[in-house]
Specification:
The protein is an alpha/beta fold. It is built from 26 helices and 21 strands.
Length: 791
């Protein structure tokens, strides 16, 4: 009787399901056609999959488990649970018989560019024998392109069948596990994570230094961790607590506030606390845990979304600690988040367009749903936050303004950074003692630093009060060019891509400030703010919703502290914006507003602004402008670029004419000798196809490394062409040469990373049908040699 052995499959469910099924069907046919033992796959019963997230079906009892290894398998799939069961079965088998069974066969489904964990590396005994295509492409691509890689796929399938037969006939069987033992299986993939964790902690560093002053946060409905049990029957107002106790609010925190409030530096402080903690067992479980690792996490993942998105799980280490990336075990970041030993902090969400921000939020919420134990802090101004999807999982906290003593401490550390800083600091501190409006505006770190710079720029003469206020409020209006790290994010089609003009933003900020003077500046209903910006004909270039978003993202004069509310950074900021707006609005007298507005600061500032304008004879802008001319941004989309489907050039002058016109050329045809192509081709926008024709002097292809969009090259009637080395540093995928001399295929084609198909047309007689197979060097990449019959 032929024995029957059972096998199970462990892979990332929900990814490539159709291709996994096709590969398993091919494997089943090979197993059935073989003359060795019979194999039966353990398939889960019909119905809703239960426990699929914990592990794969049949891993506890199968004689062989095929592990389809890929980055998604280690980061999102059941690898952690499945390999824990496999390692326990192996250790129990060795304890009972003295021989360690190997029930797992690791297969490369997609190439993994990380170091495999120790149990997987020990079971990866199959990668040494199969062809190179298996190691470079993986089973996924071999299955998807089975027609092209038929020979390689057949060799891989035969090798898998032979290896499975050898494992069940020559090795000792692994004991089966019941559900209780499977639940108690220790994590096997984390066995070699501790050493890399210390390596990562040594390499990662905070992006910014923490502020030298202690901060406080306010959380609605939050209980101070130092208090006794709260009275649940009483309404819970906003509670103020030190920023060191921020982790006490929960494992999901939304740090909301205006730009320049210091969110990035507070995230850097969390990183410092996590990296300063030297003992793995210490945590942040009580009030006496200040200074220890937040949430007990010694691994910080602080990510910036400014470049347009967040890295994948297997890309976090190369992003944060590139020197440690070569030693990272596959799935290390996912295991740390899943176990709650690493926390995630996201910054710079507000620098993204609305469409890109929605995609980042979607990715982030899916990641947090898959790792419920991972703490997370997200810094934002509240614009674009999906409040309805957050529910009760996130606690909303906000950084409070700096106290007067903290402002003095902060400015004292900044005064030594430039000449004359100490003198400017003395002038500012004397004004703070007598001017509460100026002291209140300095509550944001960015505004305080702007005040110090403005005061130092006017020395030795004192700077007028209204200019200092304008500099502080304008601190975050214009984003510095050096802030952007990496390439700018691609624009999003639609209204989100349109920039609101600068003049419209300035008028909208003042109008909103005047319309909400009678309300609390920290809690303005969203409906009230929208109605104040919805005056017919006043702001016809942008909708009120877009105005509010632009005032938060670009201007920084409002933010959204929660759903259905907007707020100003401080009452003093709103007072200055309102006074500036009223000073430039015709027909508004100071006496009229003094009777309806009880704020003496507003009346006094309004009078100062009007006196200053009367003295200079010219009205000034609401906020400070840059040193250069005012930048006017178009509210509409940019005009479309001219494009022609195909352009024919016969000289380098015609190519330069295309460059000057800015015309997009998907296909460029060069007829005859055309010089300077190496310099001009990379500058042609949208170049996809290049045709070089009728040039007997052409001996080598021009340099193509800078042509990132180029995919096809065609060479016609250039008999002298021999050098194809330019393809090794290009993105060309398709190459056609007609005619090609009766010469061997150049070896350099194999070194072209993107090249997939080559057509070579030669002269001479057509080969007979009985000709032998094509040479081995024409199989990869795909090379077709066609012969033309001469007339």
């Amino acid at each position: 009787m032929v024995p029957v052995y059972r096998y199970a499959v462990s892979y990332a469910h929900g990814r490539d399901e159709a291709w996994v099924a096709r590969f398993l069907d091919e494997l089943r046919r090979r197993l059935d056609a073989g003359g060795g033992p019979h194999f039966h796959r353990l398939v889960p019963p019909a119905g809703p999959p239960e426990g699929r997230d914990e592990g794969s079906y049949g891993v506890r009892t199968a004689d062989i488990v095929l592990a389809l290894c890929s980055p998604a398998y280690f980061n999102e799939g059941p690898a952690q649970r499945d390999w824990a069961v496999l390692a326990l079965r192996r250790s129990l088998g060795q304890a009972r018989t003295g021989i360690a069974p190997q029930p797992a066969l690791a297969l490369v489904w997609e190439p993994v560019d990380r170091r495999l964990p120790e149990p997987v590396a020990a079971a990866d005994t199959f990668s040494a024998g199969p062809p190179a295509e298996y190691r470079s492409l993986g089973l996924a691509l071999l299955t998807m392109q089975a027609t092209r890689y038929r020979a390689a796929l057949d060799r891989v399938l035969d090798g898998i069948v032979a290896r499975m037969t050898e494992m069940v006939t020559a090795g000792a069987p692994a004991p089966e596990l019941d559900e209780r033992l499977a639940e108690e299986a220790p994590d096997a993939l984390s066995a070699d994570d501790a050493a890399f964790t210390e390596r990562f902690r040594k390499e990662v560093a905070p992006v910014l230094p923490a502020l030298p002053v202690a901060r406080t946060v306010s959380a609605r409905g939050a209980t101070d961790a130092r208090d006794a049990e709260p009275d649940e029957s009483a309404p819970q107002p906003d509670h103020v607590l030190p920023a060191e106790l921020l982790p006490q609010l929960g494992r999901r925190i939304l740090l909301v506030g205006p730009p320049g409030a210091g969110h990035s530096t507070e995230l850097a402080r969390l990183v410092d606390r996590a990296l300063d903690d030297a003992s793995p067992g210490r945590g942040g479980g009580g009030p006496d845990s200040v200074g220890r690792a937040p949430w007990g996490c010694r691994i910080p993942f602080v990510l910036s979304a400014r470049s347009g998105g967040l890295p994948r799980l297997d890309g976090m280490v190369p992003t944060l600690a590139p020197l440690a990336a070569p030693r990272e075990p596959a799935g290390w970041a996912a295991r740390q988040l899943r176990s709650g030993q690493a926390f995630l902090a996201v910054d710079d969400l507000d620098a993204l367009p609305a469409g890109n921000r929605a995609a980042v939020w979607e990715w982030l919420l899916r990641l947090l749903e898959a790792h419920p134990q991972a703490p997370c802090v997200i810094a934002t101004n509240g614009t674009g936050v999906p409040w309805t999807r957050l529910g009760d999982t996130f606690r909303i906290a906000g950084l409070r303004p700096l106290s007067p003593d903290d402002v003095r401490t902060f400015l004292d550390t900044r005064a030594a950074a430039f000449p004359g800083g100490r003198q400017a600091l003395g002038v500012l501190l004397r004004q703070f003692d007598t001017d509460p409006l100026l002291a209140g505006v300095a509550g944001r770190p960015a505004a305080a630093a702007a005040l110090l710079r403005a005061a130092g720029a006017g020395l030795p003469a004192p700077v007028p009060r209204y200019r200092l206020l304008r500099a502080a409020v304008s601190a975050m209006w214009h984003r510095a060019r050096g802030e952007t790290a990496g390439p700018p994010a691609p624009p999003v089609p639609g209204l989100a891509a349109n920039r609101v003009p600068d003049s419209v933003l300035r008028a909208a900020s003042g109008r909103l400030a005047v319309a909400t003077l009678a309300l609390d500046s920290s809690r303005i209903p969203l409906r009230t703010a929208l109605s104040s910006l919805r005056t017919p004909g006043a702001f016809d270039t942008a909708s009120p919703e877009r105005l509010l978003a632009a005032l938060a993202d670009r201007a920084g004069v409002v933010f959204r502290p929660g759903p259905d509310t907007v707020a100003f950074p401080s009452p003093e900021v709103r007072t200055f914006l309102a006074a500036s707006h009223l000073a430039h609005r015709p027909g508004t007298g100071t006496d009229d507003w003094s009777g309806h507005q009880p704020s003496a600061e507003l009346v006094e500032l309004l009078a100062q602004l009007r006196n200053a304008e009367a003295g200079t004879g010219a009205a000034r802008s609401v906020l400070a402008t840059s040193a250069g001319p005012p930048r006017r941004l178009s509210a509409g989309p940019p005009p479309p670029r001219r494009a022609v489907p195909r352009a024919v050039v016969r000289s380098s002058a015609e190519v330069r004419a295309l460059l000057r016109s800015g015309t997009a050329v998907p296909e460029l045809r060069c007829s005859g000798p055309v010089g300077g192509l190496a310099e001009t081709l990379p500058r042609l926008p949208g170049l996809r196809a290049l045709v070089l024709a009728d040039d007997p002097s052409l001996l080598a292809l021009p340099e193509l490394a800078g042509c990132r969009s180029l995919r096809s090259v065609r060479v016609l009637r250039c008999p002298g062409l021999r050098d194809l080395t330019a393809l090794e540093s290009s993105t060309v995928m398709f190459l056609d040469i007609d005619p090609w001399p009766d010469l061997p295929v150049p070896d350099g084609l194999r070194r072209a990373p993107w090249l997939s198909r080559v057509n070579l047309v030669t002269g001479g007689r057509r080969p007979s049908p009985t000709a032998g197979p094509a040479p081995a060097d024409t199989m990869f990449p795909e090379v077709r040699i066609r012969r033309r019959l001469h007339s």
